[in-house]
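quick one
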Amino acid sequence: MHMQFPSPRTETATPTTQGESVYFSRSTDNLPEAKPSEEVVLKNGDTYAMTVSAVKKTINGKEIRLLAYNGMLPGPRLRVQQGDEVTILLHNASDIETTLHPHGVRVDNAFDGVADVTQKTIKPGEDFSYKLRFPDAGLFWYHPHVRDDFQQESGLYANIRVEPRSSAKPAKKSAEEYLFIDDISLDANGLTPFFQAFTNYALMGRFGETMMVNWKTDYTLSAQEGEIKRLYITNSANTRTFRLTLPGAKIKLVGSDGGLYERETFVDELTIAPTERYIVDVFFPKAGSYTLLHSTPISQYKLGDVTVSAGSTDAVQQKEFETLHVQSDVTQEMAPLHALVSKSPDKELRLDLDMGMGGMNHQMMMGTDGDKIEWEDTMPGMNRMMTSENTVWKIIDAQTGKANMDIAWTFQQGDLVKIRLYNDPRGAHPMQHPIHFHGQRFVVLSTNGVENTNLVWKDTTLVPSGDTVDLLVEMSNPGTWMAHCHIAEHLHSGMMFEYTVQAKK
Ligand code: C2O
Ligand code: CU
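structure w/ CU-O-CU linkage:
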């Protein structure tokens, strides 16, 4: 292909003779081995100390440099009770600046962990104390909010499980499993290099060829015949949307980002975009082996094995599983939101790409699979050359024409704001975008005009190419917050804006 890029700072233009210094370090010298994740139970008022530092881990026979919270990959899983408040004392013992963003948790603005928006970055050797409150039960996670592309790919993430305060029967702990689904891109010497000065793979995001569950390429789960497992699943990939299947097992969708659905449903597959979370119950009808797959229209990967040993099915448990429960408290909470489905949108946003690439035929930039979701990097050469220096992904306010950080919305605490997201399929590179709002929660009222009759609190929703998604955002938490695409490379290529929620007087 013959193309002229407007900026000299494409990857190919960067002399490799400058050595590793233009990249973040990949040295594993004197690093400790990463440890597996542990759960940390925190009570109201507790303080937990966490350190960010470099570790090494062998993946597919290669020893690679990574980053970890308290030496663990994934980091320590925090288990707290809804309504509690805890303090995380974060010490940065790494050689890069960082922050901690408690994704999806409606915390006080000062502790949202967004570099240069809610706090200054934590430099090497510095500390920051995060006072976190947990108003909502659900499955959340934490990760840095500075160079998310590099730091997330390097392993800085873990779950926060907020248990409902009113939980009558606490789930049997043995039946709970937490799964981080991720892909990483490796070369002979570690993670495929990251430039210190800017983000590469800005077009489609950084896809990886190495699939992992909880940082394992050979994830296994054991279960008993007739057993029901509750899986808490988080997609921590930079860009890859996964479509999970588990042939032979029966899957019941129970919850998502910020709690339970109004009604449980049986599903055959689960499409999960970066940063989304899903809670499912899985029933294994008979002994044998099952395979957890990432299965798309164009590819299939094995993510893990489930070994189910012979046992006897507990008829009471099975009946419980076969029953699709209605969560009447959620239904009640959602009723007034359903009523707003036909209200016209207060705000409209269009998602698009601006590459400043003069005469380029946009068809050239399109993926080849013709799906609303880009499942693979079908143009790795071009994707690698596109950086945050020459690529601008845009969120455009359709009413004002303003884009990205020029959008500065103001709302009042208590507002219910209907926001229409339109992912323009005629753009220079149509693809899906998982759009995330900080500090608040929302519901997806409708997609392409079709009402969503089963609501759940979300903080991120996937907008496939060509789709129109109507959100109702509950502006409950005062402060100045970010909203952005959660594809890390798109975030760093401009695809973000700020909005302010003014406190009720
Ligand atoms: Cu997962 Cu702006 O965050
Ligand atoms: Cu995006």
